[in-house]
Amino acid sequence: MTGTYGEYPGTRPRRLRTTPAMRRLVAETRLSAAELILPAFVREGISDPVPVSSMPGVVQHTRETLRKAAVEAAEAGVGGIMLFGVPEVKDAVGSAGTDPDGILQQAIRDVVEEVGDALVVMSDLCLDENTDHGHCGVLDAHGRVDNDATLAHYAEMARVQADAGAHVVGPSGMMDGQVGVVRAALDAAGHQDVSILAYTVKYASSFFGPFREAVNSSLKGDRKTYQQDPANLRESMRELALDLAEGADMVMVKPALPYLDVLTKVAAAVDVPVAAYQVSGEYAMVEAAAANGWIDRDRTIDETLTSIRRAGANMILTYWATEVAQRL
Ligand code: PBG
């Protein structure tokens, strides 16, 4: 069939998609290794790494294998590492989290010693990895998470993590006032140079499911009295204003892919770096579909990360950080 159809197509956007070289030239968003942050789990009392079954390819590290993973990440050019500790003994108040020799503090010291010049070393500042009930705070007499009592524990965690050498602490418990309390505690202990990456916008998400296995959590129920309702966007802007006023150096949106609209709005509103956390469930979905041959794994990974960047993230926490950095 030949012929013309009026004036169409008068304009041809396809010209800029003709070759790989042309597409590369006109790409508006690029990934680089330096903006990737590797979340990593270290478990006390094990002699070999333990695979996390719901996150194929992710393990609970021993202190030794964590050192190796940190070196591998640094050599690949990854920008940072976010450490999570899984203590052998958990109790009602999460004592391992405030113990200067708790597993997370030991791991921070190990990683800073190993790669502290090459990687920004970050630590999760939350009680849930350390409590026997699995909540992010301590409980009151009625079993409710006690905001203000929890803040005292966070202040102590901030101090021991910074003493261990953390460059950045990441308060992730969604307690009101946590960023201000952590900043004050750091400053009082002489840690003015330790930064706060605030988990500012954190939703009560089913996408955190596999993480529970990764930290041996015994949580029953949910975190809906402190994490945000996925239905809300305006509320995120309120959390953002509070965290900035309390002294957040960087802010985070979490999870990432289901909340790109939130990420875009946050990124447009602030003048601090914005991180997005591609969480355990986002990782698991892609790995599971790829294992079934239903999607192209590497293309899907790159597409999700590119989309998170395009939406406005300066930094991305992803369990694929090292692999993607090696590929870039
Ligand atoms: C809290 C914390 C969680 C995650 C990171 N920090 C769990 C939660 O809040 O329920 C989830 C990360 C992931 O799912 O990959 N310490």
UniProtKB/TrEMBL annotation:
Function: Catalyzes an early step in the biosynthesis of tetrapyrroles. Binds two molecules of 5-aminolevulinate per subunit, each at a distinct site, and catalyzes their condensation to form porphobilinogen.
Self-association state and partner proteins as the record states: Homooctamer.
Entry's EC annotation: 4.2.1.24
Reaction(s) catalysed by this chain's protein: 2 5-aminolevulinate = porphobilinogen + 2 H2O + H(+)
Organism: Actinacidiphila polyblastidii
Protein family per UniProt: Belongs to the ALAD family.
Annotated protein name in UniProt: Delta-aminolevulinic acid dehydratase
Keywords: Heme biosynthesis, Lyase, Porphyrin biosynthesis
Stored InterPro entries: ALAD, ALAD_AS, Aldolase_TIM
Enzyme class: lyase
Pathway the protein contributes to: Porphyrin-containing compound metabolism; protoporphyrin-IX biosynthesis; coproporphyrinogen-III from 5-aminolevulinate: step 1/4
GO molecular function: porphobilinogen synthase activity
SUPFAM superfamilies, alphabetized: Aldolase
Alphabetical list of NCBIfam families matching this protein: PRK09283.1
